[in-house]
């Protein structure tokens, strides 16, 4: 494996999803999916197109990275299963990246960033991070599955906040109302979340924190609807 690994990153935690091929810190190519079409119908074809466009052959990939959750239950399973299969076939290491960590990184440097992802039924997945100028992302609490009002009860005392991710854009009016008089900002919606998954994977590569394909596990944060009905 080279000092500048060639990374294939997959993000299927969101409805649209995204993929990226990155060499070290340089993004070579990326694409976004269609939120109206299941990842199961498009992911392998999208990967094939990206590899063809970059003229990169799959065996050239040094590291496979995947957004491990939270996010869409079905999407996470598809993304993780795909990365497991590809990495196992090629005997490559993998990196499981928390989705909210990638969302916080995409928002840019901040002493206090709340990463938000829609969780259905008006609720969100939320977590507080600090993001350094060099891209180091540090969790300040645990990821939670929470209603927006309880989220504001949790973070409302913070005077300076950067709200990040699809969830922040979806909750824009509530955030602007709750943050009146405070230094709260909403980061632009990330254009390709997979490239930030790759950036965190590169840090794990440098720190020797990669895992074997069969060790990949989803981070669900909450039980599935099927489990709740049991």
Give the biggest sheet: 6 strands, mixed
Mean pLDDT: 93
* Number of discrete domains: 2
Per CATH, the architecture of the largest domain is 2-Layer Sandwich
| Rg for CA atoms | 17 Å
Apparent shape: globular
- List the helices and strands in order: EEEHEHEHEEEEHEHHEHH
Question: Which terms summarize this structure?
Answer:
single chain; 230 residues; alpha/beta; Nucleotidyltransferase, domain 5; six-stranded mixed beta sheet; 8 helices; globular; disordered C terminus
Describe this structure in words.
By secondary structure, the protein is α/β, with parallel strands linked by helices. It has two domains: 6-98 and 192-229, ATPase, nucleotide binding domain (Nucleotidyltransferase, domain 5), CATH 3.30.420; 100-186, Nucleotidyltransferase, domain 5, CATH 3.30.420. 36% of the residues lie in helices and 29% in strands. It is built from eight helices and eleven strands. Strands 6, 7, 8, 9, 10 and 11 form a six-stranded mixed β-sheet that branches. The chain has a five-stranded mixed β-sheet with strand order 3-2-1-4-5, with helices on both faces. Helix 1 (39-54) crosses helix 2 and helix 3 crosses helix 7. The longest helix is centred in the middle third of the chain and has 18 residues, at 73-90. 43% of the residues are buried. Mean pLDDT is 93; it is low at 224-230.
């Amino acid at each position: 494996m080279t000092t500048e690994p060639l990374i294939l990153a997959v993000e299927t935690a969101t409805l649209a999803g995204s993929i990226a091929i990155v060499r070290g810190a340089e993004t070579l190519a990326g694409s976004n999916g269609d939120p109206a079409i299941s990842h199961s119908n498009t992911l392998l074809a999208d990967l094939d197109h990206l590899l063809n466009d970059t003229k990169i052959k799959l065996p050239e990939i040094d590291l496979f990275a995947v957004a491990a959750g939270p996010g869409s239950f079905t999407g996470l399973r598809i993304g993780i299963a795909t990365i497991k299969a590809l990495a196992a076939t090629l005997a490559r290491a993998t990196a499981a990246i928390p989705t909210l960590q990638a969302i916080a990184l995409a928002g840019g440097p901040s002493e206090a960033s709340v990463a938000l992802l829609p969780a259905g039924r008006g609720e969100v997945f939320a977590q507080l991070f600090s993001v350094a100028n060099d891209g180091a992302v540090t969790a300040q609490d645990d990821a939670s599955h929470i209603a927006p009002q309880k989220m504001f009860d949790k973070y409302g005392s913070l005077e300076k906040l950067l709200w990040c991710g699809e969830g922040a854009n979806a909750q824009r009016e509530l955030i602007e109302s709750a943050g009146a008089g405070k230094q709260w900002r909403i980061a632009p919606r990330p254009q390709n979340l997979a490239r930030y998954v790759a950036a965190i994977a590169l840090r794990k590569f440098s720190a020797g924190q990669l895992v074997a394909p069969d060790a990949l596990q989803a981070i669900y944060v909450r039980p599935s609807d099927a489990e709740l009905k049991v």
